[in-house]
Amino acid sequence: MKFKTVGLIGKQAHQGAKISLSALIVYLNERGCNILVETNTASNLDGQDVKVCSIEDIGRQADLAIVVGGDGNMLGVARVLAEYNVGVVGINRGNLGFLTDINPDDIEPQLDSIFDGECKVEQRFLLEVAVYRNGKIQSKDSAVNEVVLHHGKVAHMMEFEVYLDEHFVFSQRSDGLIVATPTGSTAYSLSGGGAILTPKLDALSLVPMFPHTLSSRPIVVDANSIVTLKVSPENTDNLQVSCDSHIVLTVLPGDEIKICKNPAKLTLIHPKGYNYFNVLRTKLSWGSKLY
C-alpha cells in the first residue's frame, strides 16, 4: 500500500492541531509526498507552501487523508470521504479519541509504520436516513455514528412506531430513539444504556431515550434491515432527526423516517499495534489484566 498523495484536514482555530499539522507537512515533505491541505485548514497555517483544495478534491485525488482533531472532526470528514473510498487516519487533538488513533507525541513513529505497510485497514459501514412526507422524500443525509429521532425541546415526549423491513416491532412514548452503528455504539448510544458493538459486527443498536415504560430496552438488529420510524400525527410539535449530532433534518407529525445501510464505507487506517480492546480499556478506564 503506497501513499504518495496525502490530504490534511485539521481542527479549526486549535493551537495544538496547528502544531501537529506543521509537523505533518515537514514529515510528508521528507517522505516525498504530494500534500493537499483542505481549504479552511490551510487558512490557519502561516505561510506554508502547500496545495489547497476542498475535502471533495482530497477524496478524488488522495491515497490517504490525515485528520487532526477529535472524533467530531473525524465524523464530519468521514461522511464525505467515505464516498471516495480513501483511507483515513486520525491524530487525536480532541478528548476521547475513539476514531483518532495517533497520539500527537508519536506522530513520526506511528506514521512510519503506516507508510512502511505495517498497518491495519478496517472498513466501517455508515447509515443513510431519509424523511418522507405523504410518500415523498423531504430530506436525507448520512451518519457514521448514529441517527437520532428526538424532540426539538428538552424533556418532551413523542409517540412513534418502529418497523423492521415493514414488520411492526413496537410503538413507544419516549423522548426519542437512537439508531447506532457499531462505530457509534461507544458514543451517544453508550450514554443511553446501549450495548457496545465490536466494529466487525453487521448490526445496529436501537436505544430508546427515556421511554415511558420500564419494559422498553435496547435491541440489537441486523444492519441490513430497513428501520422505519412512523411518527404519530397526534404529536403536536415539530420533531428532528440528527445525524452524528452535526446535521439536523426537520420532522413533522405524521412523517416517516427510513434508515438503512449506506453503500459507501469508511476506510480507517490504524498504525501498527492497534487493538480495539486496548482502545476501550484506555478510553473507558476499564481494569487492566490481573496478572
Structure description:
It is a single chain. This protein has 291 residues and is α/β, with parallel strands linked by helices. It has 7 helices and 17 strands. It folds into 2 domains: 5-119 and 271-284, 3-Layer(aba) Sandwich (Rossmann fold), CATH 3.40.50; 126-264, Tumour Suppressor Smad4 (Sandwich), CATH 2.60.200.30.
List keywords for this structure.
single chain; 291 residues; alpha/beta; Rossmann fold; Tumour Suppressor Smad4; 2 domains; 11-stranded mixed β-sheet; 6-stranded antiparallel β-sheet; 7 helices; 21% helix; 40% strand; globular
Strand fraction band?
Answer: 35-45%
CATH superfamily assignment of the largest domain? Probable inorganic polyphosphate/atp-NAD kinase, domain 2
Query: Could you tell me the radius of gyration in angstroms?
Result: 20 Å
> How many structural domains?
2
Mean pLDDT comes to: 93
How does the major sheet shape up? Answer: 11 strands, mixed
For the secondary structure, the number of strands is 17
- State the shape: globular
Number of distinct helices? 7
Low-pLDDT parts are: none
Order of helices and strands: EHEHEHEHEHEEEEEEHEEEEEEH
CATH class of the largest domain, anyone?
A: Mainly Beta
End-to-end separation in angstroms reads 38 Å
Fraction in helix: 10-25%
Q: Can you tell me the CATH topology of the largest domain?
A: Tumour Suppressor Smad4
Q: Which CATH-level-2 architecture of the largest domain?
A: Sandwich
Structural class: alpha/beta
